[in-house]
Write a structure and sequence with these properties.
Number of domains: 2
Number of helices: 3
Shape: elongated
Strand content: 25-35%
Helix content: 10-25%
Number of strands: 22
Length: 377
């Protein structure tokens, strides 16, 4: 797609014109209960799982069955969430809405307090993904410390933990920016293993980790900090040798995404912003589950003008024609400015034709003179 607008970053909004999927999204926001308490209309979540109706967890304890709701505000029958931690709930920023509220509060993990343990039971989905979010920026402190940690998931059927790791910096040791209220800035870390003694260089920067294709009705997540001391090891006993005493992981929340129901995840669907004069590429693959042998349709109802499909090909074709015309005009102008080149080129063509007709190269034939009926005199 090609964005056509004037020095603006505008959100692209789509609506579904085929079935909206019935699949659930369940979001749990860690909050102090103050300014970052999420309202029913606040949208947050990584691309493809952006939702409203987040459940606010204000302290350690249990959200009992019947109180946990999905993205439409309906209770998810049988599901309960229990949060066990000795770490405190902290407010980092005052969010202006949506994703900034999700990342505004967190559970701040100090090594002496141990990890956080989250248990979800009564999950009614045949298959699902789980997303975890971390505040990846040390807001207001000016610190450049590398902060991060681990996320380990097990269930009653498979007690062997599956792990993901993340840190708050990119490979150049620059802190990642905060996610904004339009959902821009989510960065996925896919680091799934570290050595028994490792360094931050082998951990991806990010604020999101994802566990795909879980199939049990329950899971337990253990979330904590990794560093150099014994208190900073993951549940496998692995640590980061260049960690530091302030490498605390700040856990912001998590989501459960039901899988397998064909249709769009949500309606409307907001895509990332486009910029004037820049090629815009995006995918809808994470926004829907296509039906077997079928297709889903959508319509753009908001955002900048985009050249898509035939219009884009037509624009590219016209650009090629304009380039070809400019080249032709340039060659014509060159011939007018340099007539000798044109005569030399014509002589060269005559010579090559003579060679093909059996005349020795370099021998100039006598040109016919005009005579009666064109005969040679």
């Amino acid at each position: 797609m090609w964005a056509n607008m004037k020095h603006k970053h505008l959100l692209i909004l789509l609506i579904a014109t085929s079935a909206v999927q019935a699949a659930d999204l369940v979001g749990i926001n860690m909050t102090t209960g103050g300014a970052n308490l999420m309202s029913a209309t606040d949208l947050a979540g990584a691309p493809g799982v952006r939702q409203a109706h987040w459940n606010n967890a204000k302290s350690a304890g249990t959200l009992p069955a019947g109180t946990v709701t999905n993205q439409s505000g309906a209770a998810v029958a049988g599901m309960s969430v229990t949060i066990a931690t000795a770490n405190g709930f902290s407010q980092r920023t005052t969010g202006t809405g949506n994703d900034t509220k999700l990342f505004g509060d967190d559970i701040d993990h100090f090594p002496e307090n141990g990890p956080t343990r989250i248990t979800v039971t009564g999950i009614p989905y045949a298959a699902y993904n789980v997303y975890f979010y971390e505040l990846d920026k040390e807001v207001g402190s000016g610190a450049s410390n590398t902060r991060g940690g681990f996320f380990a998931v097990t269930n009653s059927v498979n007690p062997v933990p599956v792990l993901r790791y993340m840190k708050n910096q990119d490979d150049s040791a620059t802190e990642l920016p905060l996610v904004d209220s339009s959902g821009n800035g989510y960065v996925l870390s896919t680091t799934a293993a570290i050595a028994a003694t490792d360094t931050w260089a082998h951990v991806q920067g990010g604020n999101t980790v994802k566990f795909s294709g879980l199939t049990n009705s329950n899971f337990t997540a253990v979330i904590g900090t990794i560093g150099a001391s014994a208190s900073y090891k993951d549940i496998l006993g692995h640590c980061i040798t260049n960690g530091n005493s302030v490498a605390r992981l700040k856990f912001a929340g998590f989501q459960i995404q039901e899988l397998g129901q064909p249709g769009w995840n949500a309606d409307p669907m907001a895509l990332s912003a486009a910029t004037q004069g820049q090629l815009y590429t995006n995918t809808l693959a994470d926004l829907a589950t296509p039906p077997p042998g079928g297709a889903l349709t959508f319509s753009k109802v908001g955002g900048p003008g985009l050249a898509v499909g035939r219009r884009l090909r037509k624009r590219e074709r016209h650009a090629r024609l304009r380039r070809r015309r400019r080249e032709q005009l340039h060659r014509a102008g060159d011939r007018l400015r340099h007539p000798d080149r044109r005569r030399d080129a014509a002589d060269h063509r005559v010579t090559r034709r003579d060679e093909r007709n059996g005349h020795p190269a370099g021998v100039t034939r006598q040109q016919p003179r005009a005579g009666l009926l064109g005969q040679q005199l």
